[in-house]
Specification:
It is a single chain. By secondary structure, the chain is an alpha+beta fold. A 4-stranded antiparallel β-sheet has the order 1-2-5-6, covered by helices on one side. A hairpin with an 8-residue loop joins strand 3 and strand 4. Helices cover 25% and strands 17% of the residues.
């Protein structure tokens, strides 16, 4: 088994464990080759409906993640599938691009998904290098409204009493 195949299997196991340890992240599809995932985020994030004067809240966010042949040396390809209003994520009608920021080959797919969930919640964003300048400008002017969802992504670890 190649290094890449081992990594893909490890990522699949970690994604299955993530799904068990989070009420906010759901893996809806894993390709047979373990290189494509559809991930749903049930946390609150922003969308801007046409004609609206301000963004509104949605808890329906999905993306597709492709672990290409250069993964994990280079970051996976993430495409956003649902409406979103975020400085570093584009909605599907604008190609669904996602700027995940710094990437390290040591970062696992489940860790990336936690980061993406925190991006949806507006706990994690960068207005200085935006994909969506309109969202970045709005975020700068409304920083006191963040995060829009403060719930933890993972279930808390049980306390061990000794």
């Amino acid at each position: 088994m190649s290094v890449r195949e081992r990594r893909l299997l490890t990522d699949r196991e970690k994604m299955q464990a993530l799904q068990l340890s989070s009420d906010l992240i759901h893996v809806s599809e894993i390709s047979p080759d373990c290189d494509r995932y559809k991930v749903s985020f049930c946390c609150r994030g922003l969308i801007w409906m046409p004609g609206a004067l301000a963004p509104s809240i949605s808890a329906n966010h999905r993306c597709e993640i492709y672990l290409h042949l250069n993964y994990p040396r280079t970051p996976p390809q993430v495409v956003w599938l649902t409406q979103i209003f975020h400085p570093n994520i584009l909605p599907p009608q604008q190609n669904g691009g996602v700027c995940i920021g710094h990437w390290s080959p040591a970062e696992t797919l489940d860790q990336l998904c936690i980061r993406l969930a925190e991006m949806v919640q507006m706990k994690n964003f960068n207005v200085n290098d935006p994909l969506n300048p309109t969202a970045a400008n709005w975020a700068r002017a409304n920083i006191s409204k963040f995060p829009v969802d403060n719930r933890p992504i993972l279930h808390p670890e049980p306390e061990i009493i000794v």
